[in-house]
Amino acid sequence: MQIPYLNILLRDMEERDIDDEIRWNTAETDWALWDAPWETLEDLKNFDPEKHRAEELEWLAKPKPDHRLSLELEANGVHIGSVSSYCLDENLDWKALKSEDDRKSQRWAVGIEICDSAYWSNGWGTCALTAYIRYHLSAGYTDLYTQTWSGNTRMIRLAEKLGFRECRRLPGVRQVRDGTYDALTFRLDRAAFARHRERLENGSLELCVPQTVADMSFRREMMEDPDTMAYNAGWAVSYPGYHPDTGCIDFPESAWEADFARLTRQGPGQFYAYLREKSTGTLIGEVSFHPGEGPWAELGVVLHAPYKGRGYGRAALELLARRAFEGQDLPALRNTFEPARAAALAIHKAVGFREVGRDTMDRFGKPQELLVLELTREEYWKRRKDRDN
Ligand SMILES: CC(C)(COP(=O)(O)OP(=O)(O)OC[C@H]1O[C@@H](n2cnc3c(N)ncnc32)[C@H](O)[C@@H]1OP(=O)(O)O)[C@@H](O)C(=O)NCCC(=O)NCCS
Questions:
Q1: What's the pTM value of the predicted model, to 2 decimals?
Q2: DSSP reduced 3-state for 46
């Protein structure tokens, strides 16, 4: 299993990770000063690398549960640590999960260890734990907690930023490096988490209008990539360069100048921009709207295939809605697509769109039903005010 989210990757453990774990338990052990040090530092004293390797190899050979209770973290291709979860009882203490327990209805505590300290305080923990919580929530594991101690400022700040609220404090029960600290448990406020995600995901992307004809090269990269254009395959349309089998559209350099002029022409109900990752400057897709056949603009969002599934679709739609209603004061935005596109439907609904009609169009020689979704200016501003309050 691999879960890419913004600039982090959550993935299943692999054999090559065992050497990192051994290094983190023998040589690079700073993380253990913060992660439950009252027990972790004891564990380090008894750590046996070869026993650990044998246990991990045995664990790797076993089938994994559908819902993963631990995943490794990769930042820019570097293995930096892991996330994990465990169950809590009614007193919010650790409990063993029994095979007959209904997993989704349990109280789940999520935890994180970034063992490579070079990656602390740079936002990696925020991305990683957000991704792991999002994974739990989307699987129906909704009663979420996290636990730490009152001296772990980074973890407390991280928990609060994500929308966790303190729900249990046991004063003075943790002794760490000659100090006495409280044991803390936080419970996730899901509405606050949704607000956090919105800030994180929208804040990581920006719109950039192509500035020169040469900037059309990224548009060609997308239009000629079958994975990116699969959504566009099979429609009963005919225009030069359209390949109905893949959805790709030829976009030779000779066509760039006219397309650049058409796309970047400013006017009411008219907008086109690339989506750019702020942290890396990488172009990851395009958004647009153009006048519809009624008092609305028709929108389009296309993510370049390598950037799908990372939460960017929703961010792109939020940015486009802001542009339409705050930048241009349009009456409404509409989009039309097949009901089976579950991810597209979910992000439109998350941004406040609702179904206003159905349509049909031939696809691969058969009638294809389409949903028509709309967000009005009034709905946009109501949602914006509710969110800001
Ligand atoms: C705790 C941990 C997961 C946090 O991840 P991270 O990548 O360092 O955290 P982030 O950078 O995403 O966020 C940390 C926040 O704490 C803030 N912070 C860092 N040091 C701080 C300090 N001394 N005082 C106040 N705030 C501080 C950061 O500014 C940031 O908040 P911001 O985004 O509002 O600016 C990571 O540091 C880690 O794994 N540490 C070692 C193991 C551990 O403690 N695990 C948790 C066990 S409960």
A1: 0.74
A2: coil
Task: Report the residue among 44, 82, 85, 121 best suited for mutation to probe ligand 1: largest number of ligand atoms under 8 A from its CB.
Answer: 121
Residues 232 and 380 grouped into a single domain = yes
Q: Judge whether 298 and 292 are in contact, CB under 8 Å.
A: yes
- The one-letter amino acid code at 165 reads R
CA-based R_g, the chain, Å:
24
Listed residue (70, 147, 69, 141) closest to 106, CA to CA: 141
Is-contact 361 317, C-beta < 8 A? no
Q: What is the pLDDT of residues 249-260, one digit of tens each?
A: 999 999 999 999
Q: Residue of the nearest CA to atom 16 in ligand 1?
A: 154
List, for residues 125-138, the tens digit of each pLDDT value.
999 999 999 999 99
CB 330 within 8 A of CB 200: no
Ligand 1: residue whose CA is nearest its atom 46: 35
What is the domain range of residue 31? 2-202
198, 342: one domain: no
Looking at every residue in the chain, the average pLDDT score rounds to 94
- Whether 338 and 370 share a structural domain: yes
Contact 149 CB / ligand 1 (< 6 Å): no
Boundary (domain end) residue, out of 157, 179, 202: 202
